[in-house]
Amino acid sequence: MRKTVIAGNWKMHKTVDEARELAKALVAGIQADLAGQALPDVVLCPTFVCLPEVLNTVKGSAVQVGAQNMDYRDSGAFTGEIAAPMLTAIHVSHVIIGHSERRQYFAETNHTVNLKVKNALKHGLTPIMCVGETLGERDENLTDNIIKHQVTAGLAEISEAEVAKLVVAYEPVWAIGTGKNCEVVEANRVCKLIRTTINELYPGDKGPGHVADSIPVLYGGSVKASTIEEQMAQTDIDGALVGGAALKAEEFLPIIRGGAKRCKASVGAVNASK
Ligand code: 13P
To answer: Which of 16, 37, 119, 259 is deepest in the core (most CB within 10 A)?
Structure first.
């Protein structure tokens, strides 16, 4: 059974005080709405400066904290960068890698994504590796090729045991921050393509089709309270990476509840198959 993951990418928003208040409201809201229920993995990804405060605020709750980026080296003369051991030392559990905004504005390539995923795994961080096509690529019918290439290049030289610890997010670039949702059947198809691609890369001893069964594949791009239920009802969308709607507790809590509903449905399905 795959985990459901609801991650909030706060991008370059929130001061330390604002981040603390949002984290506090989310912890209280989860406690009020979902106490005693199967919860998705809820991961809050604030800016680096807010990480200690948010970690402190969620302490003792099930909420986890992720970074939005990291360097692929352990330390050194790299002004302005943050290394994985610095994140693990403060108990950050996840790190977003290869977000399209980093690819677009900060020269992130499939190669640097691969180096970062490898380094994150080496240090026990869970990478949330982002892939997604631009509108131009979609219009030229290149979506599948782009996704397969980004997944394959991002996972180069990573062992099957390591890749099992990964989370992947499908974020079509044209759906990010635009209010334009990728139609849910299409989003599910691409999430499934990601899983098939990983399974083909890792045929393993038992033949293709098992390693990616444990890897959550999330959808991201204008996810809202009004879209989450349908998204979480799909076979291959295991959660959401949320931008704008993760910045207000009243908008993010219903999305977390949508994730919890998927957890409940999969627990039910497992029990029914026993
Ligand atoms: P929006 O939810 O604002 O479209 O952002 C998605 C995203 O980029 C999450 O990483």
So the answer is: 259
Residue 39: both structure tokens together:
């919860």
99 lines ligand 1 (CB under 6 A): yes
**Does the pTM exceed 0.85?**
yes
How far apart (Å, rounded) are the C-alpha atoms in residues 89 and 76? Answer: 17
Written as six digits, the tokens of 118 are 């490898």
- Note whether 38 and 5 are within 8 A (CB): no
265/234 Cα distance (integer angstroms): 11
Q: Indicate whether residue 220 lines ligand 1 (CB < 6 A).
A: yes
Residues of the chain with pLDDT below 70 are 205-209, 267-274
**Which CATH number among 3.50.30.50, 3.20.20.70, 3.90.550.10, 3.20.20.100 corresponds to the domain 5-273?**
3.20.20.70
How far does the centroid of ligand 1 lie from the alpha carbon of residue 223, in Å?
Answer: 7
Known catalytic residue at 53: no
pLDDT digits (tens, 9 = 90+) for 86-137: 999 999 999 999 999 999 999 999 999 999 999 999 999 999 999 999 999 9
